[in-house]
Amino acid sequence: MTQTLLLVDDERQVLEFMEPYLRQEGFHIVTATTGTQALELAGEHKPDLVVLDWMLPEMSGIEVCRRLRSGAAHIGIIMVTARTEETDKIVGLEVGADDYLTKPFSLRELAARIRSVLRRLAVHDESAAEELLRGDLTIHEAKCLVRKRGLEISLTPTEFKLLLTLAARPGIVYSRLQLLQSALEDDFLNDERTVDAHISHLRKKIEDNPSAPLFVQTVYGFGYRFGDQL
């Protein structure tokens, strides 16, 4: 089944740069030039992934990302921007982006990052699914579903993959690089601090006290582990 990408950029030449290559890669392409149009087309076409420019007329890419994520937890979102500051990257990730690509970029890298995010979104065979029970958390892999004390928690695909990777082996310490490679499956993103941003956002959703986490714990100088005393 052909996967649909929604490309959002206010510069038509940027869209014309991306669209032919991604069509050749086998994707169905929908394009938008404003934030409002992006939300309308997302509702109409139900894309598998959105490549979203930060600077847009009418509504910023950050606000579009926030609204997309609130209405469709399992859609892939890659923010594209000329901004290079680390704080901008963290803002994008914290509102729900799965990845962050800085201009200029190659079409080959863009396609690779798209496929990386789509791999994280892939739904596993229901028959192979098992629920992980970890303290107050119930993690259902096939349904990409997490509940805490019976209430569903909305996680991004990246947050879910991180949680699942850590929770599958409580007490085992994962370095940031290991989480980039195994949980995020990203061959290009080599900024290990990206993991910290995702972990911070995940903690805000699953921990009673994010500053003193019981589930996702920091092992200083090494990385992260899932608490084994739950």
UniProtKB/TrEMBL annotation:
Transmembrane spans: none
Sequence ranges assigned to domain OmpR/PhoB-type in this UniProt record: 129-228
Organism listed in the record: Paenibacillus allorhizoplanae
Entry keyword set: DNA-binding, Phosphoprotein, Transcription, Transcription regulation, Two-component regulatory system
Pfam families, alphabetized: Response_reg, Trans_reg_C
Protein name: Alkaline phosphatase synthesis transcriptional regulatory protein PhoP
Domain of life: Bacteria
Keyword Transcription set for record: yes
Presence of keyword Ion transport: no
Signal peptide limits: none
Residues with PTM 4-aspartylphosphate: D53
Gene name tied to this protein: phoP_2
All copies of domain Response regulatory, residue ranges: 4-118
SMART domains: REC, Trans_reg_C
Known DNA-binding region: 129-228
InterPro entries, per the entry: CheY-like_superfamily, OmpR/PhoB-type_DNA-bd, Sig_transdc_resp-reg_C-effctor, Sig_transdc_resp-reg_receiver, WalR-like, WH-like_DNA-bd_sf
Cited PANTHER family: DNA-BINDING DUAL TRANSCRIPTIONAL REGULATOR OMPR (PTHR48111:SF4), REGULATOR OF RPOS (PTHR48111)
